[in-house]
Automatic annotation (TrEMBL):
Signal peptide: none annotated. InterPro entries: Glyco_trans_19 (IPR003835). Pfam families: LpxB. It comes from the Bacteria. It is an enzyme of class 2 (transferase). One of its GO terms (molecular function) is lipid-A-disaccharide synthase activity. This is Lipid-A-disaccharide synthase. Belongs to the LpxB family. The keyword Transport does not apply. Its EC number is 2.4.1.182. It comes from Gilvimarinus gilvus. Pathway: Bacterial outer membrane biogenesis; LPS lipid A biosynthesis. It catalyses: a lipid X + a UDP-2-N,3-O-bis[(3R)-3-hydroxyacyl]-alpha-D-glucosamine = a lipid A disaccharide + UDP + H(+).
């Protein structure tokens, strides 16, 4: 009898757990008796994955937390390296978490283990020596955005665009009526979603600006309704306190349900990030804003390789939606940009058509595409 295929996976965050679970399901169609081990979350565990450590031990953010946890993280990485060099898998796959995974992938590849990485670090956005490290670390990079492939091809890194899982999950035609019923919103109202971010610092900087913008919008367009989804219990409490001085605003604060809120909205005012991609897939006109510490912004601006920060603009390589960053992130400019969508329906219609085209580009059955690419890699090494 032949040995079952053994695949090692390390997914360090909840988003990686989702990707990992879908990928495991797809790989089982190719290898019914495949064995999976490494580090994963609850959704991967439901698929029969064996995790040596709880996934949340890798979930660190910012600068201070990783430094405080460094001894533990190094210990975990050392264990994984020793285990997978002693018991070599047919493939090691790192899902996102590049700071942890790329070093592990590089060491394992030197030890003769076939390696791949799923979800490209943002080498396309910032000048970095990371692309050289990636070239040493992986036999294959799986990307979820089409423009990411160019830089890997330029550096002779084997790469495969597999599509974005969100494009597979989100319907091509969102159900606004159902979303409004679920959120108990008037079907005839003009609704603006306010989404100032999921992190405390983002909400602290953008929340007051968004609320001031909402007041300005309301003065110019009576009858507007605003919906504000909180990403967590902590953000709900923070936003609730921040709304105190703005009791005259017709704002509905809800826990979670960010996709439902965007689906129910006519226009979305949001912080730059993955939310912009979700809004695009939900075919929602949007205004993208962001504000950070002055020095941090200057450093990032100096390092930038791309002209835009919003994913819809990056995908189109032109400004489809307004980007109001730093000094441009004023309530006045936000209000003007949001109201323009209501005043120029032809602009909204053209934008939705472009979002549909982008959705089709990203909709590639990512789980199946990624699984097929990995199977080809495994079979090519045998």
């Amino acid at each position: 009898m032949t040995e079952p295929v053994r695949i090692a996976i390390v997914a360090g965050e909840s988003s990686g757990d989702l990707l990992g679970a879908g990928l495991i399901q797809a790989l089982k169609h190719h290898y019914p008796h495949v064995e999976f081990s490494g580090i994963g979350g609850p959704k991967m565990l439901e698929q029969g994955f064996h995790s040596f450590f709880p996934q949340d031990r890798l979930a660190v953010m910012g600068l201070v937390d990783p430094l405080m946890r460094l001894p533990e993280l190094l210990k975990i990485r050392r264990f994984l390296f020793e285990h997978f060099t002693e018991h070599k898998p047919d493939l090691f796959l790192g899902i996102d978490s590049p700071d942890f995974n790329l070093t592990l992938e590089e060491k394992l590849r030197k030890a003769g283990v076939t390696t791949a990485h799923y979800v490209s670090p943002s080498v396309w956005a910032w000048r970095s020596g990371r692309i050289k490290k990636i070239k040493r670390a992986v036999d294959l990079m799986l990307t979820i955005l089409p423009f990411e492939n160019v830089i890997y091809q330029q550096h002779q890194v084997p790469v495969k665009f597999v599509g974005h899982p969100l494009a597979d999950e989100i319907a091509m035609q969102p159900d606004k009526k159902s979303a409004r019923q679920q959120l108990q919103l008037d079907e005839q109202s003009a609704v603006v979603a306010l989404m100032p971010g999921s992190r405390h610092s983002e909400v602290e900087r953008l929340g007051p600006l968004f609320f001031q913008a909402a007041k300005l919008m309301l003065k110019q367009r009576h009858g507007l309704t605003f919906v504000l989804p909180a990403a967590s219990g902590q953000r709900y409490k923070q936003l609730h306190q921040m709304l105190g001085p703005h009791s005259e605003l017709p704002v509905k604060l809800v826990q979670g349900q960010s996709q439902e809120v965007m689906a129910a909205a006519d226009v979305v005012l949001l912080a730059s990030g993955t939310t912009a991609l979700e809004a695009m897939l939900l075919k929602k006109p949007m205004v993208v804003s962001y504000k950070m510490a002055w020095l941090s912004f200057q450093i990032m601006k100096a390092m930038a390789l791309v002209r835009f920060v919003a994913l819809p603009n990056l995908l189109a390589d032109r400004e489809l939606v307004p980007e109001l960053l730093q000094s441009d992130a004023t309530p006045e400019q936000m209000a003007e940009a949001v109201l323009r969508y209501f005043d120029a329906p032809e602009l909204t219609s053209e934008l939705i058509d472009e979002f549909k085209r982008q959705h089709h580009t990203l909709k590639c059955d990512a789980n199946a595409s990624a699984a097929s690419a990995l199977v080809e890699l495994i079979e090519g090494q045998s």
